[in-house]
Amino acid sequence: MKSSAKTPHRRHPPTGPVLSRRDLLKGAASLTAAALSGCAPFTDNFASLIGRSDHIRRENEKPGTRDWLLTNTRIDPVTKYRSPWIEGYASRTSVRAGERISFHVSTNPASPFTLDIYRLGYYRGAGGRRVTSLGPCRGEIQPDPPVGPNRLRDCAWSPCATLTIPEDWLSGVYVGKLTAAREQLQSYVIFIVRDDRRADFIFQCSDTTWQAYNRWPDQYALYDGGQDPWYCGPGVDVSFNRPYGKYCQILDAPLSTGSGEWFLWEFPLAYWMEAQGYDVTYISNSDTHADPHGLRRAKGFLSVGHDEYYSLEMYQNLQVAIADGLNVAFLSGNAICGRIDPRPNPTGAPQRIYGRVDYFGPRDEAMLKRFPTMAKFPYQSPPEDQVLGARSNVAPCTGGADWICSLPTHWVYAGTEMKLGDRIPGLIGWEYHGEPAPIPGLAVVATGTTQDAPAQPNGGVYAATFYPGPKGNFVFNASTCWWADGLSAPPGYVRPSVYTTPRGPDRRVQRMTANLLDQICVGRPA
């Protein structure tokens, strides 16, 4: 495997120790006043905040609460994934202030219920702030949808509550905590409030992937072909018009029921960024699909966690934005792998249904041996590595490893004291990227072999990469779903343990992330 090459072009690289607020205000370390106006620096106590926009700092100074956490959940053992006692979904994945969103809830047996809505962030460690409460609402048993073409389960439930998003709700991820009066059982609904303001960072939630793995009501994920519970071929559709069941993959997390994968892989990054006061705004995968111009309002775009499913429009919109100077950090694994075709549901609501129609990149015979149903696709989609910097769809595609430093002179390691061969235990997993792309200037900053269990190598090789964009920008690929585990452990967080076990917040991962985010601000001033 080729490893290497030149360090990507950069401007004003961050070097040396972490700067204090006083040092920053004096203009230390070659940072210009323009750069200072757009970034919040990384500090030991998460308290030094300098930013052009004060939105995040002011929001997180408001009183927080841990009441957003579920405390009483139950999963139907027959279906294995759903909670019929109280479950629901939102009419939109992404909504702006001033727009309306409805909530569709079923209770079986019928029970009144309340819906308490929280914005998730840092909030002095509480992790959330209650923004409103709806109800009590009259609960009723809503019908399970019939099995439609391509195994589609598309609910047409009556709305139980409707809300116009207030103008003062800051962009973020919001959860509605559903509580049934009958037995006080709980689950979530989840949605994103987006805006159109200029910001330093766009945090893209990986909600097309959340939905792909949603088995609600019982084996109706994108991976359920009717016989094989991990089917990887075409001919299966999924809908956002249904509750998120209990997460179905590598850990048992009933306390996240109704929230997709948000709490598992993405919330630790949001919690940490908001603790730092970084100027961040949030979007859905659907926004990347439908709003290419919206990507240009930020200096940096963040792909987070398990960001597997992209439409061709998402791929093209991101590729064009990079060519136009957008910095991108794939703090994710298995990114840009399966190609989907978002389309309206029968009522005309856009992007509520999709199927898997292809895979990005060329056929990989080793992957086809492992997942034979992948052979049914045409493989006519563009290569993912031309955006990502490495292959996503590469065998064996699952496994774990230590993060192993392979280019300690790169600016991403500034202040970490990492040397060649130094390791961050268990940070790579459970899916990763490999085979670096032949992009001029691409650098491999970490690489190593993967394993199925300690001392059981599986033949995989991961590669974390940088490559330079055409306008002084860059693209970073962390090559792991678990990057955010190294940043924080918010309330309720469940650490994964499969293949390897990451070790939680690590000063070196925090510093590398701060270097990335600060370099994004410095390298492309507003």
Can you put this structure into words, describing what you see?
With 526 residues, the chain is an alpha/beta fold. The protein contains ten helices and 23 strands. The protein has helices at 21-25, 33-36, 55-60, 207-212, 262-276, 285-290, 312-323, 365-370, 385-388, 507-523, and strands at 87-90, 94-96, 100-106, 113-120, 128-137, 161-164, 172-180, 186-194, 199-205, 237-239, 280-284, 298-306, 309-311, 327-333, 338-340, 353-359, 390-391, 401-404, 423-428, 434-436, 443-453, 456-468, 474-477. The protein has a seven-stranded mixed sheet with strand order 11-9-12-14-23-22-21. A hairpin with a 7-residue loop joins strand 4 and strand 5 (128-137). The radius of gyration is 22 Å and the shape is globular. Mean pLDDT is 90; it is low at 1-41 and 44-52.
Keywords:
alpha/beta, 526 residues, seven-stranded mixed beta sheet, five-stranded mixed beta sheet, 23 strands
